[in-house]
Amino acid sequence: LGMVACGGNKPGYVITGTVEGAADGDTVFLQEVVGRQLSKLDTAIIKNGTFTFEGVQDSAVNRYVTSGTGNEAMLMDFFLENGKINIALTKNNDSATGTANNDAYQEIRNKINALNQKAQPIYESMGNADMTEEQRAENMKALEGLQNELGEVYKEGIKKNITNPVGVHLLSQFNYIMDYEDIEPLLGQIPEQYQSNERLARLKEQVEKAKSTAIGQKFVNFSMENPEGKTVQLSDFIGKSKYTLVDFWASWCGPCRREMPNLVSAYKEYKDKGLQIVGVSLDRDETSWKDALKTLNMTWPQMSDLKFWNSEGAQ
Question: What are the residues facing 49 on neighbouring strands?
Fold first, then answer.
C-alpha cells in the first residue's frame, strides 16, 4: 500500500486549453516533430469548450498542440513539462502559460505575435493591383524592418534563456540568424544536461568549421582527382597566383551553369594578371562532370571525388 501511495503522488502535467472557433466534439492533438513531420502523441476531445491532456514528463521538451485540418488548421508549440499548463490556441494570439519554461517562452511569443499582427495588413495590401511601385517598395522596406525586429527578438530570447530548455531550443532552431562569433560563447553557457542535443552537436561542428575558414585563417587543404585521374591537392594551386577563387559547383546545378560564362570571361581577362580558379565539383557522375567542363569551356584546374553532397572538400 505504501508503494502504491508513493506512485500515486508522482508529479505530472495537466494541460487545459481552448481552441478559438472550435466546437464540442472537435479533436485536439498533442504532437512531436519527427524529421520534418508532426507525429501524434495523444488525442483530446473538446468538452464544454475545453480540452485536457494529462501525463508525466521526465524533462521539458518542445511539443505542438494542433487542431483542425487544411486551411482551418491551427497549431502552436510549447514546452511539455510537469505542472499545470494553460493553453489558448488562436489565430493571432496563441499562449501557453503556467510553468517556468512556458512562461519564459510566452514572453518571447507575445513579442512575435505583436510583430506578426503589424506585418499581416502589409502582406494583405501587397495583393492590391492598384498599388504603385513606390508604395510596394515602402511596404517591402517596412516588412524588412519587421523581419529585423523579429530576428532581434529571437536573439534576445536565446541569450536570456540559454541556460534553460527555451534558449537551447531557440538556438537549435534559429542559429542561422546569428554570427558564429556570437554563437560560440552561448554554446559554452549551455548546462551539461542539454549538451546531448543533436542539433547543438552539429552547430558546434559548424562553428568550428566557420572558425577554421574565417577571414585571415590559412585555407583547409584537401585532395581529390582531376579529370585525368591524377590526385591533386588544393595546395598545388594556392599561392601560385595573387588571387585564387575556389569555386564549388556541379554539372547538375542550374545557377552554377548560368554563372559560368561570367567566370570564363573573368578568367580570360585576369588569368595573366594574377587570377587563378580551382573548380571543385559536387558531381556524382564522372561523364556528366567531364562533359560539363567541355560544354562550359572551363579551362582552369578541376577536381572532384564524385561524392555529391558528401564531397570531402565541400565538407
Answer: none
Cell of 275: 587570377
Burial of 157 (0-12, 13-18, 19+ CB in 10 A): buried
First to last CA, the chain: 60
Residue 289, C-alpha cell as written in the block: 562532370
Q: Parallel, antiparallel, or unpaired: how do β-strands 83-89 and 13-19 relate? A: parallel
The helix or strand, by DSSP H or E, that contains position 304, with its residue range, turns out to be strand 302-304
The backbone region for 48, taken as left when phi is positive above 0, alpha when psi lies in -120 to 50, beta otherwise, is left
Q: For residue 4, what is its C-alpha cell?
A: 502504491
286 touches 306 (CB < 8 A) = yes
Question: What 3-state class would DSSP assign to 273?
Answer: helix
pLDDT tens across 91-142, in order?
Answer: 889 999 999 999 999 999 999 999 999 999 999 998 888 889 999 999 999 9
Dist CA 275 CA 237 (whole Å): 11
Q: Spell out the alpha helix ranges (H) of the chain.
A: 2-8, 100-125, 133-161, 165-174, 180-187, 198-212, 254-270, 286-295
What pTM value is reported for the model?
0.73
The three grid cell numbers given for residue 175, joined into one nine-digit string: 542559429
| Cell numbers placing 199 | 542539433
Q: How far apart are alpha carbons 56 and 61 in whole angstroms?
A: 12
Within 10 angstroms of residue 168's Cβ, the number of other Cβ atoms is 24
